Amino acid sequence: MPSSVRSRRIAIVGGGPSALMLLQQLVSAKAKEFELEIFEASDAPGRGMPYSSKGADHMLLTNVSADELPRLSIPLDKWIKALPKGTLKEFGIERKSFNKKKPIPRLLFGHYLQSQFEDLLEKANDVGLKTHLHLRAHVIDVKNNKKKVVVVTSDRKSRMFDYVIISVGHHWPLEREGKVPHYFDSPYPPAKLAKRFNGPIAIRGSSLTAVDAVSTLMRSNGVLEKKGSKLKFRVNEKSSEFRIVMYSKDGLLPCVRIHMEEPHTAAKPVIAQAAIDKNIIANDGFLELDFLFKNGFKEPLRKSAPKFYKQIEKLNLEMFVEKMMSQREGKDPFELLHNEYEESQKSIKKKQPIYWKEMLAALSFAMNYPAKHLSAEDMLRLQNSLSSLIAVVIAFMPQRSCQELLALHEAGRLELIADSGTGQVKAWKRQGKSKLRYSYKDEAGKVHAADYLAFVNCTGQVRLEVDDFPFRSLVEDGTVSAAKMAFRDEKKGKAEKMRTKNKDIKKSADHYYLQVAGANISDYFQLVDKKNEPSHQIYLMAVPYMGGFNPDYSGLDFCERASKIIVEHILNDRS
Description:
FAD/NAD(P)-binding domain
């Protein structure tokens, strides 16, 4: 490259899995006309929160396997089999029996991601992409001065860039934790729950986040023993009163992992982009949710699962969700979990996919990126119906985690209660002892209450608002604006506001709109300012702050797709 040509400078704020995918895209493009700096607050790149001690321990498992991952330098299963005996023993893995379908401990997966990150740094050097990784580097602000973007670190150093990609990852704000004894705003890091509790514990939520909390708590208060093909839980003598009560809106547990024919969701688009664009043009700039449901879910099942297709052929989205949820609601959640486990065992052993579950995962991924083009009416439909089914069906609990929950329940130490989302937690003291009272109303309006030694909020990653955005200069100058969606029919927007009193339906001048979580972003993940103009310099790939426009916004498949879109847009920028 001639010395007269100035390199364009890119900063990635956050060095976790998102940064790994961004780095891979830049290396693959041989982007030697760029200089790249990566700022990571921890002492190791690639891991992020979920795959480090901040979000995992030796026993918490990934909910993905090697064949579901984007292509990296070394496939996960080959990397695992090349590990030293001591490392395999530390994580309870047998080299001979390991295969690419098995989930692994998240901490070990973090080591894998770190190794791939370090390998990519070497490859970046080989292709001429000048890269510098800053570890233990805390970015305290990002400033937009129009011509350049300034990144400010905690040592008060300011560095100027042509492009900044914000990928700061998961974040759980502390609201009552540390102020109220034994109240935990999240189960992370798991080490804080690794305590003995000789009494009942309440957990809000029944997602994979709640499964993490249960797994940690049960190991601190008892032992799991193998009895034939089953696990049995035996409580510690000093924790004889230990038990867990989970509360969730619907009283449902996630489904269990199954065999999937197309495990890597991002590898094969279920709906062509041209078809999506055509639907938007034909509908006054709005993407139809019914179009996504038909073409991203029902039509593919016509060939892959004709018998199931016949059952749902004439059902609209709401009717389908009601049909599938009715098969679960009102039934014992642990009996359902046992049945799901047996079904998953059969699916994996015989390599038989359960097509409708696989297609629901594909639909969720397919509608993630264009979801910002839905009308407010359709986004409300998505929030009120399909999202609940997706949350239950495609969480895909690892089989071992399923066995653990069943063992704890069979020991009389785990219960799940549907609280219709009305649960409240209050702290009180009696005779110098602190307790937490959880109360809720049942469908008949009757109030139920019980006291607990501890409470853990396990509702998953909170979708944060613009007011929570970590880089305040971007908020104050209007570079960051709230995500909102227009109603296709203004009268329906007004009627919905009056009928439901939904605080997220707002009025601006004579127009009603739906405000959704997080920041406004373009199709290319650019921040969109208060004047509705996309930034040519600042991109957002930070999970907690983009959940409104990206309903299915987590996982490495998301990171892969988003990073490809962002890097291609930067590479094509001629401004």
